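Support request, priority: normal
Reporter: lab tech (M.K.)
Component: structure prediction queue

Hi team, I submitted a job for Dihydrofolate reductase from Auriscalpium vulgare yesterday, and the status page still shows it as pending. I've pasted the exact input below so you can check whether something in the sequence is tripping the parser. The sequence length should be 315 residues. Please let me know if I need to resubmit or if it's stuck on your end.
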Amino acid sequence: MHDPLSLLLAGVELSSRQTDNSADTAPGPPSFLTTVLGSLPADDKPGTKPLPNLVPPDATRPWITLTFAQSLDAKIAGKGGKQLILSGDESMKMTHWMRTMHDGILIGVGTAVNDNPQLNVRHLPFPSQNTHLQHYHHPRPLILDPHLRTSPACKLIVNASKGAGIAPWIISARPPSADGFWASEGDVEKVQQWEARQDALCAAGATVVLVERETLHPDLPSTNTDLPLAAVLKTLRAQGIKSIMVEGGARVIQSFLSTAASEQLVDALIITVAPTFVGGDGISYVERLEDVPGIRHISTETLGKDVVVGLKVGS
Ligand SMILES: NC(=O)C1=CN([C@@H]2O[C@H](COP(=O)(O)OP(=O)(O)OC[C@H]3O[C@@H](n4cnc5c(N)ncnc54)[C@H](OP(=O)(O)O)[C@@H]3O)[C@@H](O)[C@H]2O)C=CC1
Ligand SMILES: Nc1nc(O)c(N)c(N[C@@H]2O[C@H](COP(=O)(O)O)[C@@H](O)[C@H]2O)n1
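Reply from support: The job had stalled in the queue. We restarted it manually and it finished. Here are the results:
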């Protein structure tokens, strides 16, 4: 039943991942990554600061690198959203180098709840002195979470409370006013529950960053609770976040790609393709990459068993 081939086809990791404890064996990011995104000035040790050259075309938003790992049949997760480790050791390490290059790392609450990720850089070589967290730049975790579904007991918050991670910012929006013309009795309760979740997250050490909902008809009740990406990015830029690595999941990738088809919102894409098939019941993103205007190939590299493709958008 669980022969190596079926496990491989299901995207299951076959060997245990080893953490490389030598800072000398892998002194810096793979050349593929520096070709696509750039590198730190020679005076700075690799991985210790976000890249200063990641500058967006205008000051209304941060630089956006959209990145994910997919199977040959373009799935990013298994049946029912089961988390799959698609990246091999080498491309996973590349992803961790990429994390050091950005001010923030953004995921949707679907990924936060489903994967309970750490979003740290633990696959990079340990420096001989100093702790991992002190040596490397760790990006600020950013979670798109309109209904505050993130658990106060998730790894991101617990790690930060132990001094072993950067506390996440939960990006949300206050629910529509409970005393407006369209409000119903249930709305009062919804607002109270949202406020209770906000208090619990803040008490656990997270920061809730509020975004104003932008709607064409502010007097009508909104059925779409997705946070407007342009407003999210503007808020984050105003809070000092100059570059963001967007790691998924499916709906967030879809939102960024569909918005990028009409306005420039994504600056670079780095896609890891693992030599495995997940099958028709796996989770995919449905937007078409070719619909993003100005998208162009920059570099491709084989890292272990995977192929990693780097693209850029705009000039
Ligand atoms: N292979 C890979 O590289 C990766 C794979 N994954 C996989 O992806 C899956 C999770 O994806 P998915 O369930 O789609 O969840 P997402 O992580 O994409 O989160 C989606 C949720 O984010 C909230 N949200 C707020 N604003 C927006 C917006 N503008 N656009 C989209 N979402 C918004 C919504 O929350 P609400 O519902 O509360 O309104 C929405 O349901 C998991 O299976 C995970 O393992 C994740 C990352 C990388
Ligand atoms: N690069 C990459 N390859 C995969 O195979 C993946 N499944 C992911 N997933 C993303 O990484 C998060 C997990 O991060 P930690 O290992 O907990 O630090 C996961 O939530 C996805 O965002 N990425």
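Residues 185-204 form the longest helix (20 residues). The two ends are 51 Å apart (CA to CA). Let us know if anything else looks off. Ticket resolved.
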